[in-house]
Amino acid sequence: MASENSPVLFQVRPYEGSAPTSSNLADGRETWPLIHALAATLNDPNPLPALAEVLGSHLGAGACLLLCHYPSTNDLIYTCWHQGAAPTSRCLGTAEAGSPLDWQRRVALGLIQQTVEPAIGGDRLRWQQGLAALLREENGPPAWLRAVAACTAIAVDGSGSQGAMLLLGPNGLAIEPTVQANLASLGAIAFHQHYLQGQAVRHSEQLRYLNYLKEDFLSTLNHELRTPLTSMMLAIRMLRRPDLTPERAAMYLDILEQQCSREINLVNDLLMLQTLESKASAAAHQATDLGQLLTELAEQSQAKLQQAQLALDLQLPSEPVVLSTDPQQLSKVLGELLDNASKYSAPQTTVTLSLSDARPQNGRVALQMSNLGVAIEADDLPHVFDKFRRGHSATKDGIAGTGTGLALVRGLVEQLKGTIKVSSQPSASQLWQTCFTLEF
User: Which residue range is the domain that position 147 belongs to?
Assistant: First the structure.
């Protein structure tokens, strides 16, 4: 959404004279009113619709089409005005090869290329066919396009963009080169202003999203930090009671130890995540028997998984698999993934941890951890490893966490020169199988 105080490139008054009646701009006296009117359209944060209307109406064209391609972002914009209708704009985004949208992109790019480089070799697209394909509606080309018999094209080759201004009508327009150069310059400014406005909107949306993440993280962190502290404070108060039995004293000491460990782990995770982002540490690689490491991890996690009513299926190859890695960091990665599985798995299901016995030619080994539970929504799937990002199901179901675990996992895996990916697919048990695959 454009800002109400968007900066403008020109500050001019709208031209108060009447539009020229002649389509021949060889007479220089008609040039400046047109340029003045076009420059006034640049005051609009989105100048392309107004530019198309003013350009077409002042030159006596029946229609005007503006085409612009931004190679840096691969955005392709076209704006169309014709007599009797308001101008319309459309962004032709990237599309699957062979689709109607992909064909429209190809046509638009072809029209731009032929205008910018008229001497280009090869098969040339006839502008009539190109416009019919580009502007095609459900029932075929628009009716007003049938009255178009001539096309005057002005190339716009600006900094960071390429485009074309197509003036359409029953007759051709005679525009002297100097006027065409002025029109092309104004078109380049308008295209660049449209690009800057789009960038400003995207940056504004990104800033709003980052602010949302910050507020959500601070709210979650406040809860995650205060809960252990509250439990520890209550345990300390109970330990001060003079009538406390040794058994209950031992119970409160256990609570203190558990909650203190929880607090320390949270702080350590935050500090480790910051360290990984600063690239300040390096992994200490050594030869590690993955089978032995996974067996020890399974034994350590058994009690926690049983408490969550989960079983662990450890699948190891018959032969040892030795990897040069940092065993502590790899154990941290797998421990975080097991914690994640215990949070999101449905009760009475099995978490599977498998080590591939395949020997690929590239010498990499694969680890997989899968669990059964709720689906990772399609919108969340590309962002599961983002820092402080939590899925909709976690927020909806009140699952504890700060959104740092999987971000920490990705950072550690990258430091170990590995890769990690995630998939979520429906299973036969009406649950979804979430699978994390690591390769080293």
Answer: 28-203
**Nearest CA among 316, 368, 376, 317 for reference residue 345:** 376
Q: Is 19 helix (H, G, I), strand (E, B) or coil?
A: coil
If one counts every other C-beta atom within 10 angstroms of the C-beta of residue 254, the result is 11
Other CB atoms within a 10 A radius of the CB of residue 75 amount to: 17
Q: Can you give the pTM of this predicted structure?
A: 0.49
Identify the residue whose tokens are 């941890």. Answer: 353
Is 42 in the same domain as 162?
A: yes
What's the CA gap between 18 and 426, in Å, rounded? 66
| Identity of the amino acid at 57 | S
Residue 59 CA, chain-centre distance (Å), reads 42
Q: What span, in angstroms and rounded, lies between the C-alpha atoms of 96 and 100?
A: 9
Instruction: Clarify whether residues 195 and 241 are in a common domain.
Output: no
Question: Do both 65 and 196 map to the same domain?
Answer: yes
Non-local (6+) Cβ contacts of 175 within 8 A are: 25, 26, 59, 152, 154, 183
How many domains is the chain built from? 3
Cβ contact 426:336 at 8 Å: no
- Examine residue 345 and state whether it is found in any structural domain, yes or no: yes
Residue 394 domain-assigned?
yes
185, 265: one domain: no
Among residues 203, 229, 257, which one ends one of the domains? 203
pLDDT in tens, 114-146: 888 876 544 445 777 788 888 877 677 888 888
Distance in angstroms (rounded) separating the CA atoms of residues 128 and 118: 16
CA distance readout (Å), 375 to 351, 381, 433: 15, 10, 7
> Do residue 57 and residue 111 come from a single domain?
yes
Cβ contact 342:304 at 8 Å: yes
Please state the length of the chain: 440
Pairing relationship of beta strands 161-169 and 63-70 according to DSSP bridges = antiparallel
272-310: pLDDT as tens digits = 777 776 665 566 788 999 999 999 999 998 888 888 899
> CATH no. for residue 375?
3.30.565.10
The four Cα atoms 198, 201, 206, 209 give a dihedral, to 10 degrees, of -150
The whole-number mean pLDDT for each consecutive block of 10 residues of the chain, a chain of 440 residues, reads 40 39 46 73 80 85 89 86 88 80 85 79 61 78 83 83 88 81 85 83 84 73 78 90 90 89 78 69 80 91 88 89 89 89 88 77 82 83 74 54 76 89 85 90
